[in-house]
Specification:
alpha+beta, binds calcium ion, 7 helices
Length: 482
Amino acid sequence: MGPNGWAFLCVPLLTAVCGQAEGLSRGPFLARKRRAPADGGEGAPKKCSYTFLVPEQKITGPICASRGPALPDKDRVTRMDISDVRELLSKQQREMDTLRLVVDVDGNLVNEMKLLRKESRNMNSRVTQLYMQLLHEIIRKRDNSLELAMLEGRILNATAESLRLSSRYRELETRFAAMAAVVNNQSVLIGALEERCLQVYGSRRPESGGPPLVQVVPENIPVHVPRFSNEIQRDHARAFPRDRGSRAGPGPTGNKNKKNELNLKGPFRDCFQAMQAGHTTSGMYVLKPDDGAQPMQAWCEHDIDNGGWTVIQRRKDGSVNFFRNWDSYKKGFGNIDSEYWLGLENIYNLGKQGDYRLLVEMEDWMEKKVYAEYSSFHLEPESESYRLRLGTYQGNAGDSLTSHNGKQFTTLDRDKDAFAGNCAHFHKGGWWYNACGQTNLNGVWYNGGVYRSKFQDGIFWADYGGGFYSMKGVRMMIRPID
Ligand SMILES: [Ca+2]
């Protein structure tokens, strides 16, 4: 309470109010209304009450509304006290607000801290994972580089080994070429010595000796070390178990299967015409040349050099005996799907239909194929003993056939060669022998390449391997000139 306080004065204001219940004074006066008890009724005497009116006095302090006994000054609550309290409360409220704000901010900070901590943990985990991956990668790369180094080492070793082998191979090849030349020369020398012996001692006629052996140094040496073999086919009973055409027959035969024979296509004038007719599969066909008396079977080769090739001779496995007489060579023999000779008359009839060229394809015992091609080819009629007419050579086997150009055909029973004796007798085949020749493609099929024989009777092509190297496979084919 203010020290001075203020006096609370209650001055009764006497007002005479009688029967007026609604008299109410308003304004800056303290009004008191006292109602008389209602038990009087209208008849009861009216009671009067007194109201004291106190002149208005300016109130500067709190008004005590207490109706109780007046409090001592020191216990009175003044407006200032209330204001102070309010101010204090307001201040505390503000402090509370501030604190709440701080708490809110702190709470957000805590949450953020939590999030950051969580993120940090995740980051750590991720960093650890990446580190492990990196480590793994480093280890793997190190292993790879080690493996690479090992591989490089092995490649280097292999390269060195291959170089060494290649060098050794070249050395062996050179030695083989030298040996082949020596063998060839020795065979020639032995032949010459035999002839000289016969001449000196006169025990046999000179012409009964063999023909001069091939003395050319071959242009090409088959690139392998062959094994010498004497597996010659003089034992016909053993060597030609499938050869049923030793006697002169109607010509080379096809597959014995009748069904297959029925499926043969033709007849065509040659394999080129068959190809033009749309038959582009290599195989057996029926041919009938323009002047041919009867159709024949032949193998058509459509898989090399644009196709259309008529095969007139084939050697491949020694299954057919080629040491035959005139009639047999004239009509042909063998099996179309293995070894055969098409027949001189058939070849003659084919050749006179037009301009043909000849392809001689040969295969050595390393399965390397070489060829000799002649720009033109035909035979003269039987009255000329099927004389050979050839054009110019091109190829990679060397030209061993041109020396036979213009020669007549010789067999064991018809000697048309230029040698005193019968070349067919020494070379064991039928051919356009000279005296006797640089090639013998109808000779004896020897197994293995280089062979030993008193006479050069193998399937040789002098410019490829010399006279004592027998080819593994041969095909003679003709085709019209484009
Ligand atoms: Ca002769």
